[in-house]
Design brief:
The structure is a homodimer.
Chain A: H1 27-41, H2 48-54, H3 69-82, H4 90-108, H5 124-136, H6 142-173, H7 177-183, H8 185-193, H9 198-206, H10 212-232
Helix pairs in contact in A: 1-2, 1-3, 3-5, 4-6, 4-10, 6-10, 7-8
The structure holds a DNA duplex (30 and 30 nucleotides).
Chain lengths: ~230, ~230
DNA sequence: GCATCGATCGATACACTGTATCGAGTCATA
DNA sequence: TATGACTCGATACAGTGTATCGATCGATGC
């Protein structure tokens, strides 16, 4: 019999557009999709609608897997922690590795700079990397372990955050790193010309400019040297 | 003659509700209003609409003073930098003061933890506090100044960020600090019970728990000790 | 003194967000 | 087979940042 709506017989009617069978979902799939979006276009590009669309689903479907956007962000952060895998022998090597692998992970996922440290990290991967570090600090006096690890973490997160901030600013102005630092932006030029920040101007103009990695490493060494002094005692 | 609409004479008609003459606006007024909102209800409570309403204005009016929400946030951060006023004699005192006044400012404006370090700080107040610090490091070798100050800033920002994160978590769970730390949350209890994180569990259970201020100070001392070693050379 | 033009300002409207609500549809049971 | 409970996710809502462009107002020319 002809279709009620079109009056056409089955054979004349085109098949419906091939709707892929509702993709099976999982927390992991959702988080992966969100991370893809964030890696490509930044955290602002992560909306429940876009994530759902990427998975060929409707937004509310996600709520069976997560309890809201905040939880999705938590899961994303823990996924980054999975890439932070400190290793090495002895406290100094492990702490160095902790800081540098944090740095690498955040370089790979710049958006993580806006989330790391923003709320307590209690996900399985975060705990796992914590466990690795703690285990490697077995020969350090127990009461000193937490403050030491906290300090290294605080430094790493703060330092990486500034690195990312600068990187974004450079990208926004379209300048590469050297031109940016050399020109300091016309704004800084003018500001320093006012003479209100002489010491700052001197440092910026006359001091050697280390690259991001050297700066990071240097600060980390300061911190570890200070820790070494206490631990040795 | 009677009013066309109501048919009432002037004397019968009530005066229009006393609309205060459109409040004069300024960047400062706008930023102050935004900060009041953020202090009271967090960064999420800062919307151009709410800020405008607080100033008895309509949202688009703000666009004559700022170029978008991002700029408003930048101004808010610089306002916080106005409260970071390092002081003291000699490099160590000044750097200590820098870190601790950063900490105090962020405690007063918790939302600042989410913004500080998130983009280059080039506002007048940020530069001013930078100038103070640089000036006080006059006797430090020029090439070492930037790395040293960067490291202290990175540490302070990262450390304060975690402090705020914990404070928020405690507030969210309604627990006071001691109960939170003692109970560790039922979740951590259960997680540690699995035995997958023995070293972590040991540290959390058996190590002494310093309060936030002690922890902050201790990490800062590690860093400054390490710096002292390099500078002295 | 009046009409016209130009620029300025901010109300309206749009596209998008996270998520509460609740009706449709499904399954197990009587 | 009828009925009920339950689950799922489409719809709808309240809110966001901001582009657009019509109303308004001052200055200018006659």
């Amino acid at each position: 019999m002809p279709c009620i709506v079109t009056g056409m017989l089955v054979w004349e009617r085109p098949e419906p557009p091939e709707r892929p069978v509702p993709a099976p979902l999982s927390r992991e799939r959702i988080v992966r999709a969100a991370i893809r979006l964030a890696d490509a276009d930044g955290l602002d590009a992560v909306s429940l609608r876009k994530v759902a669309t990427a998975l060929d689903a409707r937004p509310m479907r996600l709520y069976s897997y997560i309890d809201g956007k905040e939880e999705l962000l938590d899961l994303m952060v823990d996924a980054v922690h999975a890439e932070i895998r400190p290793s090495g022998e002895g406290w100094r090597e492990v702490l160095t590795s902790l800081a540098e692998s944090t740095r690498h992970a955040v370089h790979k996922h710049e958006w993580a700079a806006d989330l790391l440290g923003g709320r307590p990290q209690l996900g399985p991967h975060a705990l796992a990397s914590g466990e690795t570090v703690m285990a490697a600090l077995g020969d350090v006096e127990l009461d000193a372990v937490m403050p030491v690890v906290s300090a290294v973490n605080a430094y790493a997160i703060g330092a990486v955050r500034r690195e990312v901030a600068e990187r974004r600013a450079e990208r926004a102005t379209g300048m590469d790193q050297e031109r940016w630092q050399a020109a300091l932006g016309p704004y800084l030029q003018r500001t320093f010309a006012t003479g209100r920040f002489p010491a700052l101007a001197t440092v910026v103009h006359d001091a050697a400019h280390l690259d991001a990695e050297e700066t990071f490493r240097m600060g980390l060494d300061f911190l570890l040297d200070g820790i070494a002094a206490r631990i040795a005692r």
